[in-house]
Amino acid sequence: MPRLQLAAVAASVVGVGVSIYLTMVHYAGITPACPVSGTINCEAVLSSSYAVIAGTSVPTSVAGIVWFGVSALLWGWRFGPVHLAWSAVGLLTVLYLVFIEIVRVGAICLWCTAAHVLVVAIVMIAAVMTVSPSGRGLGRGA
């Protein structure tokens, strides 16, 4: 498996972990390990109405578990257009969630940001592997 593809699997697995942590925080009703005042305020973000999937009591972090889990499985297979499409879905979701955090809630959650950075990293890997002539990433042995 190319190194970039392995990196995408690793980022996906870490993303599952972050999303599981956020889901556990939601259901346990505890304060996350994050600042809780000012602009960086996980509690404000995670207790907002946007922290659950509309019309349910299911935290958005469950969608993160699903997205990162599917991503890990996809990256375990041979690289193809589905990787770029799945990454694009993740990126569009991240853009929406960052808008919600900054504009609607007025606070940023560091744990959410960690998940967003992982999605962006996966998108960048998909882009590099798409434009690479060998489809294996840049450089030798990638």
Fold and architecture overview:
This protein has about 140 residues and is mainly alpha-helical. The protein has one domain: de novo design (two linked rop proteins), CATH 1.20.1440.130. It has five helices and no strands. The protein has helices spanning about 5-30, 40-45, 60-75, 80-105, 110-130. Helix 3 packs antiparallel against helix 4 (about 80-105). The longest helix has 26 residues, at about 5-30. The protein is elongated, with a radius of gyration of 16 Å. The N and C termini lie close together (about 10 Å). The model has no long low-confidence stretch (mean pLDDT about 90).
- What would the principal axes of the Cα set say about the shape? elongated
> Roughly what percent helix?
55-70%
Strand content: under 5%
The total domain count is: 1
User: Which H/E pattern describes the elements?
Assistant: HHHHH
CATH topology, what is it called? Answer: de novo design (two linked rop proteins)
